[in-house]
Amino acid sequence: MQYLSIRKSDWDKMLDQLLLSFSVYATVRNEFGIDYELITQNNIGDIIYNIPKPSTSLKTFFLPVRENVTSGGLLNKKRLILGSPNCDVSGLNILDEIYLDRDFNDIFYRNKRENTLIISSDCLEIQEHCHCTAYNVKPYSEDGADLAVILTGDNILLRVISQKGIDFKNSFLTDLEPAADDLVWEAENAHRKTDTKLMDACKDLPDYKKTGELVSKAETGIWKKYASRCVSCGACTTACPTCSCFLLIDKPDFEKVKQMDACQYPGFERVAGGEDSLFRLPDRFRNRYMCKYVWKTQKFHSIACTGCGRCIEACIGKINKNELFLELSK
User: Fold this and answer.
1) What is the mean pLDDT of the chain?
2) Do 322 and 281 belong to one domain?
3) With a threshold of 0.90, does the pTM exceed it?
4) Domain of 245, in residue numbers
5) Are residues 104 and 138 located together in one domain of the fold?
6) Nearest to 91, CA basis, from 115, 51, 56
7) 161-192 pLDDT per residue, tens
8) Quick check: bond before 53 cis, omega within 30?
9) Contact predicate 108/246, CB 8 Å
């Protein structure tokens, strides 16, 4: 895989020039943590690299929380998203399967995917709840993204991944040189160190397939136990890079609005006659895990959890799904 290198100061100047052709979003640290911000000339220097992970998942750029699907416009300027961790990039795999289906593709999703260039950020640190490697997701992108970035010393290394990335390189990165061997070795050694940290941190967690088996066989008691702290806020679903349920709301003048929905909300499965198979909270709680680890594996090729840990961090009730899985695996 090809690596290119550029001095960090020159890279910032290049980003300034890219603002003419792209709407650029990148990860920036604020008073609440790390999240995406629209980049201007004034905050290019605030972009952070290789530190996981933005509070908002990459999903939101392609599936907004609320979107008018009858009068909403398509992107008229290409976007560049810089700093996405690979857990988010991998999360797009199942969204692509759902929304780019050959027979029933979503024109708004497709437009956003086609007009967005993704430069992922290799994770060189880990957070408490990161567990991507438990599900065979690497902390750096080898596919899915168009390029990947790593900051080492005063140098930016770019790894070219996709054909879109090659086209971008040929159009906008013509001054970059192939990276020196010692810089490439340093980057790949950093990858190995991060891999090792993650594997040590989640060595006891069951893998994705085993988790599905455990969830499908779990008895009622454990769902009642963990659901007792759930407040049905839906934060876990909103933060998740793969959950994508939505409501289609009819508005006046034949408008339709697509609104993000969550299986943890009361009434999620209520039908016109009033029946609701998920009326009880433990049933709704179980439903989410069955969907992510059992049912979606039966329908799609891609995994429905990439181990980002956001659902744990966002939970008001302090529910840790990994603790649930470890209890099931005993």
Assistant:
1) 94
2) yes
3) yes
4) 208-328
5) yes
6) 56
7) 999 999 999 999 988 989 999 999 999 999 99
8) yes
9) no
